[in-house]
From TrEMBL:
Pfam families referenced in this protein's UniProt entry, alphabetically: HAD_2 (PF13419)
Encoding gene, per UniProt annotation: cbbZ2
Keywords: Carbohydrate metabolism, Hydrolase, Magnesium, Metal-binding, Plasmid
EC nos: 3.1.3.18
Protein name (database record): Phosphoglycolate phosphatase
Catalytic reactions on record: 2-phosphoglycolate + H2O = glycolate + phosphate
Molecular function in Gene Ontology: metal ion binding; phosphoglycolate phosphatase activity
GO biological process: carbohydrate metabolic process; DNA repair; glycolate biosynthetic process
GO cellular component: cytosol
PANTHER family, alphabetized: PHOSPHOGLYCOLATE PHOSPHATASE (PTHR43434)
Cofactor(s) this protein cannot do without: Mg(2+)
Active-site residues (renumbered): D10 (nucleophile)
Entry superkingdom: Bacteria
Top-level enzyme category: hydrolase
Length: 243
């Protein structure tokens, strides 16, 4: 029997609802600069490309863009404000720890590919009790490239011992789908994250509405890798995921 396929996860919007903490840090920073706070909806549309773009877009949305040299001083301040916030166990999406445990017990190698800085991602996973599930963690600052480039995803697969057929990326946004496509692997999108639009338009191989639907979606892809997209039914989704 073939070894279970590696499963590579995105972090923000997939495993953890990081918007409240990112928003707290960004709005505190904007306040220090005499700028108005951004709304939650605006904030959610800024997440997914790493902290530098989050800060740049946040300042642009709150008045005017920062000059390039201003970004260099503002970014470390943002990272300090964000990293100082204690991890919130309630920010882990429902079903994540149990489903990761189920996949690990079934023998799936598990990796993380996020555009968050690697150290912050590792600390966050550690504080939330999730780090031990991950055999490899690659962040947005680990390589000269970040998602949507395929290199970070391929680096995770290499660190997990290779690039077998059947690996699957699980994410919430366009960068995750594009990185998976470019790496030549399948992609499952969760509908409750920060897709910046309709997640059904992302053309993933599967769209799921609850993290607990993941094992079934992985099995469906394993049995039928060359299929048109099939969505689990939205009406079956819980309402507690903020979707
Ligand atoms: O934008 C970020 O900082 C991280 O986003 P990601 O975990 O969804 O890649
Ligand atoms: Mg994400």
């Amino acid at each position: 029997m073939n070894r279970p396929a590696p499963v590579i996860f995105d972090l923000d919007g997939t495993l953890v609802d990081s918007a409240p903490h990112l928003g707290h840090a960004l709005n505190r920073l904007l306040g220090e600069w005499g700028r108005p706070a951004v709304s939650d909806a605006t904030l959610r549309s800024l997440i997914g490309d790493g902290p530098r773009l989050l800060v740049e877009r946040g300042f642009a949305a709150a008045g005017r863009p920062l000059a390039a040299e201003e970004v260099e001083s503002v970014l470390p301040r943002f990272l300090r404000l964000y990293a100082a916030l204690p991890a919130d166990p309630a920010s882990v999406y429902p079903g994540v720890p149990g489903t990761l445990a189920q996949l690990a017990a079934a023998g799936h190698p598990i990796g993380l590919c996020t555009n968050k800085p690697q150290a912050i991602a590792r600390n966050l996973l550690g504080e939330l009790g999730l780090l031990s599930f991950f055999g490899a963690v690659v962040g947005g600052d680990s390589l000269p490239w970040r998602k949507p480039a395929p290199e970070p995803l391929l680096a995770v697969l290499d660190a997990l011992n290779g690039r077998p057929a059947g690996a699957v990326m699980v994410g919430d946004g366009p960068n995750d789908v594009a990185a998976a496509r470019a790496a030549g692997i399948a992609c499952i999108v969760v509908s409750y994250g920060y897709a910046r639009g309709n997640p059904a338009d992302l053309a993933a191989d599967r769209l799921i509405h609850r993290f607990t639907d993941l094992p079934d979606a992985l099995e469906a892809i394993r049995r039928d890798p060359h299929h048109p997209i099939r969505h689990s039914h939205p009406a079956e989704a819980d309402n507690d995921l903020g979707c």
